[in-house]
Design brief:
The structure is a single chain. α2 packs antiparallel against α3 and α6 packs across α8. This protein is an all-alpha fold. Helices cover 62% and strands 0% of the residues.
């Protein structure tokens, strides 16, 4: 199986932007926590989170085909499939819990991070109610696809507020590392 060290080398070979590297790390942390919650492989889930946008900066027009092909060549077909379908509009079926978790983690983690950045106390004390209010404002973090956020919670059969609270907890536990 692919190691985290090798996955990090792959990510860093294609991604230089500090914000994209931080996004990869935050989604990795959330995916690891989801793996623990559901009794799944923490390393596999973490690597999926770490690499989900690995080719976005270097190959934006081909994203995620480049990283998916690379993972397939390495025999990491489960991770490749999850990454291939981490946005529902791409039409890749979400067959496994891994597939569902990466879709649930990606957009919402980025959105919560954006919510925390504008607060004086950052992630500390951030409540689901505040995040929900921001979700209703289409001008705030306008690039975040709200339909994907709600679909992610639905796929995991979680109330959106519970998923938000879960992700906030993960980010809060790691606030120093991720600058929140």
């Amino acid at each position: 199986m692919l190691t985290r060290e090798t996955a990090l080398e792959i990510l860093q070979s294609m991604t230089k932007s500090e914000s994209l590297l931080r996004h990869a790390r935050t989604v990795e942390l959330v995916m690891e926590a989801l793996a623990k919650k559901y009794g799944e492989d923490v390393v596999k889930y973490g690597i999926t989170g770490l690499l989900h946008d690995a080719d976005y900066e270097k190959h934006p027009e081909q994203h995620p085909k480049v990283i998916v092909a690379q993972l397939d060549e390495m025999g990491e077909t489960e991770i490749a499939h999850a990454i291939a379908g981490h946005y529902s509009k791409w039409g890749v079926p979400r067959n496994s819990l891994l597939d569902k978790c990466i879709l649930a983690a990606d957009e919402l983690t980025g959105f919560i991070y954006a919510c925390a950045l504008i607060r004086p106390t950052k992630i500390e004390g951030l409540k689901a109610k505040s995040v929900m209010k921001k979700l209703k404002n289409p001008k705030f973090a306008a690039s975040v696809d709200r339909a994907e956020v709600y679909l992610g919670a639905e796929l995991l059969e979680l109330d959106i507020r519970d998923l938000i609270t879960f992700i906030v907890g993960v980010l809060e536990e790691n606030r120093e590392e991720i600058n929140l």
